[in-house]
Amino acid sequence: MAAIKVMIVDDSPFSRTLIADSLRDGGYDVVGETDSLEEAIDIYNKTKPDVITMDIAMPDHDGFEVSRALLHNDPNAKIILSSSMKDEETEMEAKRIGISGYVQKPVEANILFQVIDKVLSPDNLYQDLLNSGLETFKEALSQNVTRMAKTPVSFKDIGAAMDEPYTSSGVTSVIGIIGQYTGTLIMDLSAETADNIAQAILHRPPKSNDETLAMVSELANIIGGRACSMLNMKEKALGLRVSPPSMFHGNSAELVSPSVKIEHAVAKTDYGEIFLGVGFKKGSTLWM
Amino acid sequence: MDVNIINPVLAAFKEVLPQIGIQNVEKKGIALSSSVFTYTGVLLNIAVVGSIKGVILIGMEEEHAKKFASKMMMGMELAEFDELAQSAISEMGNMVCANACTQFSKVDVSGLDISPPTLLMSKESGKVTIPVPKTVVIDLLCDDIPVKLYVGLM
Lengths: 288, 154
Description:
- The complex is a heterodimer.
- Chain A has two domains: 5-120, Response regulator (Rossmann fold), CATH 3.40.50.2300; 124-287, 3-Layer(aba) Sandwich (Chemotaxis protein chec), CATH 3.40.1550.10.
- Chain A is built from eight helices and 15 strands.
- Chain A has helices at residues 13-25, 37-47, 63-73, 88-97, 109-120, 124-149, 191-202, 209-234, and strands spanning 5-9, 29-34, 51-55, 79-83, 101-104, 154-161, 166-167, 170-178, 181-190, 241-242, 246-249, 254-256, 263-269, 272-282, 286-287.
- In chain A, strands 6, 8, 9, 10, 11, 13 and 14 form a seven-stranded antiparallel β-sheet that branches. A six-stranded parallel β-sheet of chain A has the order 2-1-3-4-5-15, sandwiched between helices.
- In chain A, helix 4 (88-97) links the parallel strand 4 (79-83) and strand 5 (101-104).
- In chain A, helix 6 crosses helix 8 (209-234) and helix 7 crosses helix 8 (209-234).
- The longest helix of chain A has 26 residues, at 124-149.
- Chain A is elongated and about 75 Å long.
- Chain B has one domain: CheC-like (Chemotaxis protein chec), CATH 3.40.1550.10.
- Chain B is built from three helices and seven strands, in the order αβββααββββ.
- Chain B has helices at residues 3-16, 62-72, 83-106; strands at residues 25-33, 36-49, 54-60, 113-114, 118-129, 135-142, 145-153.
- In chain B, strands 1, 2, 3, 4, 5, 6 and 7 form a seven-stranded antiparallel β-sheet that branches.
- In chain B, strand 6 (135-142) and strand 7 (145-153) form a beta hairpin.
- In chain B, helix 1 (3-16) packs across helix 3 and helix 2 (62-72) packs across helix 3.
- Chain B is globular and about 40 Å long.
- The mean pLDDT of chain B is 93.
- The interface between A and B is large, with 46 and 46 residues.
- Strand 11 of chain A pairs antiparallel with strand 5 (118-129) of chain B, so a sheet runs across the interface.
């Protein structure tokens, strides 16, 4: 098997030498070393390293900027931050950018090898979430719509990728999901279905569009919250939380979610159809 | 109006945009709106969760969004607001909002995280209802491209 290729981005020749020596001793192939953003991209494109180690403090561009540029160049680049700082905000920043792992300086060889190993191995937690995510959101929708609006729910088009752009039916709730992985929940229905469901829940016609909208927003919030807590119960490490919904209405907009692949199912109820789309994205960081 | 809510987001625009091909970010106006407003063209939705929560939206007319994306791609001609342009605008929003979280941490609001962006496109006027009572609407001019920034955080 070919040796794992590593590129080192660090402004200190001393640190670069230390990391390169440890890596070579461990059987890794050090394909390049640099302290500049432009050169990092150039070396990356020429040598296609499996992993990049990245210092934070550098003279022209910091490690976050270089990481952003590398991930913009190739979203699949695997970056391990090496820094003496280890605080919550550094961790959050790294996670938001999409950095894959972290080692604290001075870098201990065996810890670096372990992190490289983890960064390159398949992420089972993420795979499980992708496998069970939509199913759990379907369950939450089914339970809550049945309970609140007293209608049976069945599904069609289960697990199909959302057409991009997706054309909304008129009333769209968009919920952000935050946690070990981030994601998006889209619930979409026609104004007529929304009115019918509001009437079923309220046992009277809704007084205004605002009342219908508030009801749909609440329903989406409950479905998102319930589904995430069901997923968290199965796997605590997910730590999923939802944002309250943004509601888009009054027209038929086109929707895209360029950084997330949305899978969907369509719920059939006595009151009309409800589109349910959900997708997750990796932004996880391994901290050792 | 709580400037502590707006300033980190504006600071993020001013810090990130020059890194992606837009040199000048000017604030042209600021207004307080309710939780409901209308839009046409392109609207990017990014949720914020943490000790403050809510949503940041970035709106542009489609023509302007095309111009913005073109600048991000070093002047590449764009006949349509296509998949590549949609991805560029989403990436811009993602970078700005991630940076806004960092700016918030500098004023001791830490531990914020953002959702992946969702982009809406509509030629006719549509309505948005966001989950906080007030929206701060800021008119920006980014290298002569008008951009509307909606900050609904609490």
